[in-house]
């Protein structure tokens, strides 16, 4: 049997964390001595390993408890967690690549002009030219053809203004150190999705999360966002995940 201090040291966590897990019923000591000392056996240590794995993958503690309180095949669970961790590693590798690109841009004196990126245009031809690179990228990478899609100039300009406003607000939240779960951040996302719903674009919390997942793995969009603000792609993805969790 292991004391709470031994388990904390073994798992590289804190006694306070273990006490909290006990309090919420996530990790119950197998024994408590007459003196009040908590004791954990091998099963408790194995369960803590599962908890910490899921926590590293940003699962909320309530969700982890639901997962672990069901019937669990330890080998299958470990394989699933390994796959999730590998996906997370791939995302971080992509983010590091983007950061390196951004550092290179800074060294070369490349300036970000977000306003010109979303300034809007007067004719359909101007919009077609502005979207040319993105359309070519979507066709090449995903065989998704937007070349025949009609363009409503007024609607596109409205969308551009909202996109500029939304990204400026979210980047400000990031720069000012707001939590991804801050009510002001989530309220801004809600406002943005309501706008998208109004103009007929996919706008559910899951749609938004899916979009941010694409931004992370897709070089074209990730590089564009990271040129505006290093770390913005990942921040936006975490905001989307928290927004979805808060709407359940």
State the strand order across the main sheet: 1-3-2
Q: Give the CA-CA distance, first to last residue.
A: 39 Å
- Secondary-structure element order, N to C: EHHEEHHHHHHHHHHH
Shape: elongated
Characterize the main sheet. 3 strands, antiparallel
Explain what you see.
By secondary structure, the chain is mainly alpha-helical. Helices cover 70% and strands 3% of the residues. It is built from 13 helices and three strands, in the order E-H-H-E-E-H-H-H-H-H-H-H-H-H-H-H. The protein has helices at 4-11, 15-23, 42-56, 61-68, 74-107, 114-117, 124-130, 132-142, 153-175, 183-198, 205-217, 219-228, 232-246; strands at 2-3, 31-32, 38-40. Strands 1-3-2 form a three-stranded antiparallel β-sheet. Strand 2 (31-32) and strand 3 (38-40) form a beta hairpin. The longest helix has 34 residues, at 74-107. It is elongated, with a radius of gyration of 23 Å. The two termini are 39 Å apart. The relative contact order is 0.08. Mean pLDDT is 75; it is low at 110-123.
Question: Which labels suit this protein?
Answer:
single chain, 248 residues, mainly alpha, 3-stranded antiparallel beta sheet
